[in-house]
Amino acid sequence: SSLKHQYDLVCIGGGSGGLAAAKRAHLELQSRDIQPKIAIVDYREHPNIVNTSPDRPEINWRWGLGGTCTNVGCIPKKIMHTAALYGEYVQNASEFGWKVPSTVEHDWESLVENVQNHIRSIHFGYRSDMMLNKIEHINARAKFLDKHTIEVTDAKGNVKTITSRRFIIAVGCMPKYPDIEGAKEYAITSDELFALIKPPNKTLVVGASYIALESAGYLSGLNQKVTVMMRSIPLRGFDQDCAQKIVEFMKERGTTFKQGCVPTKIRKNKNSFVVEYVDDKNSVHVEEYDTVLFAVGRKCVADELGLQQLGVKFDNDKIDVNEFEQTSVPHIYAVGDCINRGLELTPTAIHAGSLLSRRIYSEELVTKNHKHIMDYTNVPTTVFTPLEYGSCGMSEEDTIKKYGQDNIEVYLIGFTPLEHEFTHKDTNKTYMKVICVGSEEKIIGFHYLGPNAGEITQGVAVAIRLGVTKHDLDSTVGIHPTVAEEMTRLNITRRSGLVAEKRG
Ligand code: FAD
Ligand code: NA7
Fold it and tell me: Which ligand has the nearest atom to the CA of 294?
């Protein structure tokens, strides 16, 4: 350990990136017989208190270790999505011989309580992990005083200063609110959704990001009446052919879409909220909702750290880092959602955080000067909408822009998995698209809409990383009967103009 500073490393932010970086640093230093002094400083005050109730203290909301992903992101989201899928299974169960009542009700409160209990069990796991690894957890808000010193303030207002040899910043983002009257007072964001003590009922979801569509999807699936208000296109940045199919599917499942509309004002009316909005022809409309949920993007919180005064450069609201996740102050690094490269995803924050600590502390990497740079390309992802969407690589529009229509080949298929054929539901909704470039037909984009999208796409991502070609897919033997086997027999191209949907 260094003598000059209290700590070898302080990670600011105990979410996906910060935890991974701290754990890896500890592991590397310990394997060199160094007992490191590492701390994680993590804190979040909650802006809204709609979810705290004196009668239900057991579901009072607290922000424990784990950051966005654990508390208000991936974990509660995936559980809610799964809850909605269970509703579908129950509806279909009678066709498989199960005697289920014709109407089954959903109990929002017990779902939320179980979600919050699950989150608490994850906090417990992280805390014991930290103790086991002797990583100190400081539950306080950090701010830089100088290049090696931070000031930390806890919930009670106690302040202390801490010095460290190095810092890794992983403070993430928070949901944004649009700048309209009543937004902050009356609306919620994904930060509150998973702890609402009452079902949201008639809900307006504003925005068309993946968070907006996922929320609308599982709320609909949990029997809530949902309207999505989007000002332009769904899922900007994703393959638009697939994005449109998701919207169509959600419409068929009962979600209302108001396209080309933006809210301009929200006011309270007894137990509901009155939303004023304008459409694309500038006409003003008024509608009443029980809950208004904004999912209009996320804002980085790194600007609150006092980094600018140290000379750390920013790129809009994000921290500007080089390919080694290093800021303009060499011993201050940053990973995850708060940096200007990379993607706002948990596994990229974890991977980048872990690699960063290896580059700094691993004996092997440091002595041999191995670079091990984080590769942010071809990162697979899945959008957990009712029709799940997995993708890896480029969208069709981006490949056309980059290579030209004549230089790419797009293989498509729309089909009905056995499970859906059996229940006569969701005919031809499962969809697969493989985008190839060059005479060797190297695969540069994979898109899949259908069941278990994440599970399928993860495997394809490995293949894409290894440079898979269409010929490799064709010569791979499928697993029958699965949806994934369709990727081994793709033969309809966009160019041919043939109908991609399989009939019969
Ligand atoms: P975070 O996890 O946000 O952690 C940052 C931590 O730092 C927080 O605890 C914060 O309170 C704390 N902090 C901030 N400022 C300070 C300060 N000054 N002092 C001390 N502590 C501070 N990603 C996926 O890969 N898959 C998904 O399915 C997925 N679903 C999502 C669903 C939702 C609704 C949301 C909101 C996000 C989802 N994400 C998903 C994104 C994922 O959660 C983030 O990419 C990930 O958590 C980023 O990790 P991070 O370490 O950069 O920051
Ligand atoms: P994004 O991708 O930044 O999207 C924000 C969404 O909210 C998008 O649909 C916007 O519409 C919409 N938006 C933004 N401001 C408004 C206002 N004022 N009114 C109505 N609608 C609005 O969202 P996330 O932060 O959730 O996603 C972050 C990243 O995760 C993203 O980069 C993805 O790659 C994955 P727009 O399209 O701008 O018209």
Answer: 2
